[in-house]
């Protein structure tokens, strides 16, 4: 499954995780991506959308 939002382009973020003793390791943060059927150019199409775009109403869901 794609880890990128088709609407806003939000993708995986990279960073460093620190333990209590301050040892560090690389880690990733994945966005909350949902596979939904939406209206794109007047026709229903399956796209990958983050939950923020769904909540804010940037996507018109197909029924």
TrEMBL record:
The keyword Glycosyltransferase does not apply. Pfam families: Ribosomal_L28. Gene3D superfamilies: Ribosomal protein L28/L24. The keyword Ribonucleoprotein applies. GO terms for cellular component: ribosome. Belongs to the bacterial ribosomal protein bL28 family. This is Large ribosomal subunit protein bL28.
């Amino acid at each position: 499954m794609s880890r990128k939002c088709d609407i806003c382009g939000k993708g995986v973020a990279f960073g460093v995780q620190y333990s209590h003793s301050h040892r560090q390791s690389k880690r990733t943060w994945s966005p909350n991506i949902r596979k939904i059927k939406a209206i794109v150019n007047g026709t229903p199409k399956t796209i990958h959308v983050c939950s923020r775009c769904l909540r804010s109403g940037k996507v018109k869901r197909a029924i």
